[in-house]
Amino acid sequence: MTIMETRTKQGDASDGALGGRFSRLDGKLKITGGATYALEHPVEGLAYAVLVQSTIAAGRVVKVDTTKAEAAPGTLLVVTPETDLELKVASDWYGNRPDDQPYHPLPREVAFNGQAIAAVIAETLEQATEAARLVEVTYEETTAVASMDSPNAGEGKLVDQFNIAWGDAEEALAASPLRIEAEYSTPREYHVPIEPHGLTARWDGDRLTIWEPSQWTHGMARSYAELFGLPDENVRLLSPFIGGGFGSKAAVYAYGAVAAAVARRLGRPVKLAVTRPQNFTSYGGRAATRQTLELGANSDGILQAIVHRGASETSTYADFPEQTSAATPLMYAVPNFSSEHRLVPANTVMPGALRAPGKNPSAFGLECAMDELAYAAGVDPVEIRLRNYAEHDPQSGKPWSTRQMREALAAGSEAFGWAKRSFEPRSMRDGRQLIGWGVGCGTFPVLRAASEAMIRLLSDGTVEVVSGAIDMGQGTYTILAQTAAEALGVPVGQIDVRLGDSSLPGATVAGGSMLAGAITGAVHKAATAAREELIGLALNDANSPFRDTGANTLTVTDGRIAVPRGDGPSLTVAELMSATGRDLIETRRNTLPEADQGPEGHKRAWTTMTAIQGPTAGDYSMYSWCAHFVEVRVDEDFGTIRVSRIVSAFDCGRIYNPKLAESQWRGGIIMGIGQALLEEGLVDGRNGRVINNNLGDYLVATNADVPHIEVISVGIPDLNASVLGGKGVGEVGIVGVAPAIANAVFHATGKRVRDLPITLDKLI
Amino acid sequence: MTRTVHLSLEINGKTRELDVEPRVTLLDALREHLELTGTKKGCDQGQCGACTVHVDGKRVLSCLTLAAQVEGRQIATIEGLAAENGDLHPVQAAFLEHDAFQCGYCTPGQIMSAVACIREGHAGSDEEIREYMAGNLCRCGAYNSIVAAVREAAEAA
């Protein structure tokens, strides 16, 4: 029996390893070209697959003439809707699966322009690319709904689960002395990770290895296993480095099924790289949204009612709701509330989760509307947010676990110099440049999930942290080394971290800002157990120098084991392992409750989203929060908009590594600048094609579009949110940026632009 | 089979021989034929900068360059930037210190661009760095740190 000392957490760098500004553990590999991303893994005997996508938005493939493609030099195989790839429909994210239903990733029925309908496999990439051009498809076209804005799109279908109401919103709105009503809209937006999607698939008998960028190795490995009717253990998915995901790399898509199926058919490994233009329709970006907000307030700007009606675009074959009411009921105290959300089907690829799904467009509407209310009431935009401060979660009625929103507004205002702002629009200028200052707030829920991790103490004193979790740039490698170092009492430099492999201990998805909280909890638990075992070994082993010290516990600090009172022996971990003849101390722990232990519970936790707990599952309501302060400069003559200054303050609980968290926050803010001013998927109304399906025409923020961004942490440890006190960091950064910019543009110009992006044509 | 050409390329000071179709880009030659995968393919259309390498010291988009075009020229990729003994190039060290990347996929292109940007004399101010590094997209949004890293490396140069 070992008595463990209690380690007190301060929640900052004074704790030691965790909370320190360490550089990325995987950094050196990334700056030297040594980090091997999925498609770069060397595999012998590769063949190359290239997709052929539909050129109509709706209809039927009548005929595919593959004669020329098959005759082209190097062609090995052409697969079309005629080809039975012998696949079965796999489970969705929630583990639901139809029985024994065939899956046709290259379907005969076309549901959107840019859908994969054929693939060519050849000896070289160039040959496959050329032969893909020679595939001739004959279609029978039917009437399409090009987008949710098309005249034939209809008003869509109400989603019952998103009906949110309390009080009598319509009546309270009618009785309010101050009322504003406005419609806000956001276009289709795309993830655009700089690493395009793709995979290499290799079969060894009935075992399948997949190298594919993945935000969820266990979830995607399960999908591949189900597609082919294989036992889970026969599939291994490797993803040690991911070139950006932002929500797009957590699922197996049609192209993945095609690549793995043709590899089996050909009996050789196949690499399929989705081209940049194909990325725009091989998986869905953020759905287009529109929402009408009516706010009723008394003459001081105190909210009395919110009536909200929203809609988002979805596909014709499956639904993905981009919930416009995700933030609306949470941000402010309001006694009467009503919200509905509709899904409008169009001939598009099913939309997907893109950084802060729901919360992002929802906050765009509400945070612009609050600015409009501030101006209707003649109240400062920060002040109106404080006057309507929600002391508890208005929707669930539960107390906030932690909510440093006042602190965020105060710290952001102070650093930005908000007090010097003049209230009237068009009242600040610098020559021909109109200057505007705007504020916008954001939130993202704390989602909690279980994960598993293994700690291995090797005889040379090295510590390995092992998990199937992934790092797409959030810093998982680094913070897990810090977590293990902290719990074990060894230096961070002594720790190796192995991630991104579905054969390693299970982890939840790197999405919904939940991975850090989940996997640090598991690593902390496993590392604490390893330390306990190490101390037990030191106290009890016949060959240990500590055996006769009479100590009932030992300390482990900076990699040395010693007696607490300071006298007696002091050994490094390696020296103790050597003295006792131990090669390895290995501990594997997960954070599942007892009832969910065992194979079924593990499979459910690591490969589905059914075990994830929402923000109000417990006694508290738990969210991350932020406030953005933005300065824009608008050219009075040309209407060009430049963001010239941003200060953002965040409450994300305890920060495990401020250097990396600040990078994530800035990244979210920069994506928000793109969303506000640049990003817009343009759809050709005649054929439903995404016109600007490349990086020259779908504009994302460049270095020249981005000013210095000051980020401030106002969070405090929240031990309800996670084992170590952190709340989500990655998603919240983008939420509230676009409305802050829109509000700044209004302040600069006096013009409200309510449809993103805010381009110069809307100002002049 | 398609006709191939024999190429002899000078890459990072070493001669590399390969037989490829004449239409193979420098980017695909590096990644698919020479196991030099540090150079990244982000768009294959000359729009993102991830494939930036140096040809005779100047930054070039390897996805818009045929391998056959660069015979007899000096090609430098990210793999050849650090010293033989493993010491990082000052730009690499500054990228690590300033956390000038997250996912790391645009990073080799950013670094190759940054080295050339400094050499061109276009790293005199933050504004100038932003403008002359604007051809390298970073979707993770590490731009502030990239500017800080380039500035520091330029000042040390």
Please tell me about this protein's structure.
- The complex is a heterodimer of chains A (764) and B (157).
- Chain A is α+β, with helices and mostly antiparallel strands and 764 residues long.
- Chain A has 3 domains: 38-143 and 197-282, Aldehyde oxidase/xanthine dehydrogenase, molybdopterin binding domain (Aldehyde Oxidoreductase, domain 4, 2-Layer Sandwich), CATH 3.30.365.10; 164-171 and 285-446 and 616-762, Aldehyde Oxidoreductase, domain 4, CATH 3.30.365.10; 449-607, Aldehyde Oxidoreductase, domain 4.
- Chain A is built from 16 helices and 30 strands.
- Chain A has a 7-stranded mixed β-sheet with strand order 3-7-1-15-12-13-14, with helices on both faces. In chain A, strands 9, 10, 11, 16, 17 and 18 form a 6-stranded mixed β-sheet that branches.
- In chain A, helix 15 crosses helix 16.
- In chain A, 60% of the residues are buried.
- The model of chain A is unreliable at 1-15 (pLDDT under 50).
- With 157 residues, chain B is an alpha+beta fold.
- Chain B has 5 helices and 5 strands, in the order ββαβββαααα.
- In chain B, strands 2-1-5-3-4 form a 5-stranded mixed β-sheet, with helices on both faces.
- In chain B, a hairpin with a 2-residue loop joins strand 3 (52-55) and strand 4 (58-61).
- In chain B, helix 3 (107-119) packs parallel to helix 5.
- The longest helix of chain B has 14 residues, at 143-156.
- The mean pLDDT of chain B is 97.
- Classes of the chains: A alpha+beta (764), B alpha+beta (157).
Task: Sum up the overall morphology of chain A in one term.
Answer: globular
| Straight-line distance between termini of chain B | 50 Å
Overall CATH class of the largest domain in chain B: Alpha Beta
**Tally of separate helices of chain B:** 5
Q: In CATH, what is the homologous superfamily of the largest domain in chain B?
A: Beta-grasp domain
Structural class of chain A: alpha+beta
- Kindly report the average pLDDT value of chain A: 96
Strand content of chain B: 15-25%
As laid out across the biggest beta sheet of chain B, the strand order is: 2-1-5-3-4
CATH architecture annotation name of the largest domain in chain B: Roll
